[in-house]
Amino acid sequence: MSDERLEVFLARLLVDEKARARFLANPRSVAEEFGLDSDLFGEVDRLGLELAAESCAAKRVRRSQRTVRT
Amino acid sequence: MHRDRVDCLEVLADDWLDKPPRAPRRLAAEIPTSLHGVGLGLASACPVDENRLARVAWLINAVEPETWSEHFAFVRAGGIEIGHLAAPPRTIATIEGFTRNLHRARVAVGSMPLMENVATLMRPPGELSEAVWIRDALLSGGASMLLDLHNLYANAANFDYDPLDFLAAIPLERVRQMHLAGGRMWRSRLLDDHQHDVPDPVYALLTEVAARVQHPLTVIIERDGNFPTIEHLLSEVSRAREALARGRAR
C-alpha cells in the first residue's frame, strides 16, 4: 500500500506545479504529511524533478495534438 | 520502403487503440513488425488498467506483430495520468507489482511483452540501483528485454555511472531487441528526445552488447521528429549494422 501511495505522490509532483513547489520547499515534512517515510527523500533531486515535470507537460501537450491518418 | 535495407519496423501501439489498425496490419504482413506500447504502466505497485490492457490485447490480435513491447515505467497512479513514462520507485514492492502486472498482460494478450529500460531525468526514490531493479524484475517476471542503449547512455550520464557496469549487472541473455536514438543536453541533463542522430557512444554500446552475447539481436532506430532525409536514416541503419558486426567479430 505504501508503494502505491508513493507512486501517487510522485505522480502528483510530476503534474501539479503547486504540490511540487510545496514539496521542494520542505520535502521531508510534505512527504510525512502524505504518510511516506521522509528518508526516501533525503536527497531530493530538485533539478531532475523540475525537468521531469516540464518534460511530462510537454509530452501531454504533444499527445493531445497528435493525429494519425488511417 | 527500402525493403532491401530495412529488416523490421516498430509501430507505436497507442496510436492505434481507437481506430481500425489497417496500416499496421498491412505492414506486419509484409515485414517483421513490433508493436511498441507506452501506456500500460506495468512497472507499478498498482494493478494495470484492465480496460486499456484489453484494448492492447485486441490490437495485438488484430495486427499479429512478431513481437510487442512495453516499458519499465508507471504512467498513472491514484487517478492521475502523468502523460509520460515515469521511472518507478526502485523497491521490492514495485518489482512484485510489475510481476503481477506482467502476468495479467500475458494472460490477456497470450504472450509477454519485451520490457524496455526507460530514460529518466529524475532519480527515483528507492533502495535498489537501476541495474539491480531491472535484473530482479526480469528474473522475477521471466521476461525478455528491449534494451534501449540511448536510455542507458542518458541515465549513466545524468546519474554518473558507467554503462558497462550496468551491462555487466543485467542478464544480457534476456535481451532480444535494442533501441538506438539520439538526444540533447537540457540544463545539464541529457534528454532522450529521439530527435537527433545516434551518438557515437551509443554505437559503441551496441558493439559491446554484440560482443557479449551470441544470440540474434534486433536493433531498431527510434526517431520521433526533426526528421532528416531517408538516406540519412538509412546511413544510421548501416552504422548500426557495422557496430553490431564489430562486436560479433570480437
Features:
heterodimer; A: 70 residues; mainly alpha; 4 helices; B: 250 residues; alpha/beta; seven-stranded parallel sheet; two-stranded antiparallel ribbon; 8 helices; 41% helix
Number of strands of chain B: 11
What amount of the residues of chain B lies in strands? Answer: 15-25%
Tally of contiguous helical segments of chain A: 4
User: Please, how many domains of chain A?
Assistant: 1
Find the biggest chain interface: A-B, 28 and 38 residues
Shape descriptor of chain A reads: elongated
How far apart the termini of chain B lie comes to 32 Å
Number of helices of chain B: 8
Sheet with most strands: strand arrangement of chain B: 1-2-3-6-7-8-11
Mean pLDDT of chain B: 97
Overall residue-averaged pLDDT value of chain A: 86
Sheet of most strands of chain B? 7 strands, parallel
Rg calculated over all Cα atoms of chain B: 17 Å
Overall strand count of chain A: 0
| Proportion of strand residues of chain A | under 5%
- Looking at the chains present, what oligomeric state does this protein adopt? heterodimer
**Which of globular, elongated, flat, extended, rod-shaped describes the shape of chain B?**
globular
Uncertain stretches of chain B: none
Query: Residue share in helices of chain B?
Result: 40-55%
Task: Determine the N-to-C terminus distance of chain A.
Answer: 42 Å
What's the short version?
Chain A is mainly α. Chain A is 71% helix and 0% strand. The chains are: A mainly alpha (70), B alpha/beta (250).
Describe this structure in words.
The complex is a heterodimer of chains A (70) and B (250). Chain A is mainly α and 70 residues long. Chain A has one domain (3-69). In chain A, 71% of the residues lie in helices and 0% in strands. Chain A is built from four helices and no strands. Chain A has helices at 2-15, 17-25, 27-33, 46-65. Chain A starts with a helix and ends in a 5-residue tail after the last helix. In chain B, helix 1 (22-30) links the parallel strand 1 (9-12) and strand 2 (33-36). In chain B, helix 3 packs parallel to helix 4 and helix 7 packs parallel to helix 8 (230-248). Chain B is built from eight helices and eleven strands. The mean pLDDT of chain B is 97. In chain B, the strands form three sheets. Chain B has a seven-stranded parallel β-sheet with strand order 1-2-3-6-7-8-11. Chain B has a two-stranded antiparallel sheet with strand order 4-5. A two-stranded antiparallel sheet of chain B has the order 9-10. The longest helix of chain B is centred in the last third of the chain and has 19 residues, at 230-248. Chain B is α/β, with parallel strands linked by helices and 250 residues long. The two termini of chain B are 32 Å apart. Chain B is 41% helix and 19% strand. At the A-B interface, helix 1 and helix 4 of A face strand 4, strand 5 and helix 3 of B.
